[in-house]
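User: Could you check the structure of this?
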Amino acid sequence: MDHLAAKMKGPLKMFMDKFGDFIREDDYQQFFSNRRQNGRDTYLSSDFRRAEKLASIILEEYGIRQKLQGNVILTVPDPAWDVPFYMFQLGGNGRQTIALLDIAPTHPDIDYSPLIPVWEKYRKALDIGENKIEWVMTTASPYLLHCQYGEIDTALFNEAAAAYLDVWIEHYYKPGRKLETQSEIDIVTNAIYKYKHVLHANDPAYGIFEKSWGKPVADAFHYVESQEHPTLPLSHETDPYAPVWENKELNVMWTLAAQERFEKEPAQSRNGLRAAMEQRARNARFGMITPEIYDRLRG
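Assistant: Sure, the predicted structure tokens are below.
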């Protein structure tokens, strides 16, 4: 029985109303966890859906000890298709708001001309400003609307979310093409892996939920969110918050496993190799150096 869909409201209902006809009704997973402590709830209600061209659709409602509550919508593309992410998050406590809205690229040649007028309209109307968190920008488009613990017109932001979704459906999802070459698929796969890696490594929610529910329950949510290809390891490579190498100028990052691979190189070989590998990754349109990418580019 589809328990969560019947309770959807606000942004989640908006998404289902607009995109529901494309969603498979016979293929979904649902999870809910709640911990009440000292009269305050920490809960997460997650709905994982499927559709053609998409590996997964994540629809979530959360609340954290009556301090924050909100919604998350994320469409994760199938790596074999040229379709970008649609990402929405809106939450807060009424005074300070976390807001994120984007159509994030998986392929560097994406044409953003259909989105630009919508972005210009709502950037001006929302008066959010230009300040954005660095880690968000490593995977975001130039047309991200973002607010971190500031004041925002939430009704207007929800209106923007609906407008972005219309653009995503009509200009990116519906005409999304099946990729014809393995090189294109590899680029998109790498972009999706980087997006998952960056999102989970910087999202504080895992630690909050682990403390409230215990590691097995928090891991279960992480697994369902990240199980589709390309899969993000449950351990985030042993430590999700360990510092990783990042070339901000080239927007190229390393996984911990790739860093360890590099550090096994003979000392005399390392001089200049890191910079060379980052430039090779950039030239090949890879934003994340994994062990597999390292071996390919190392030659």
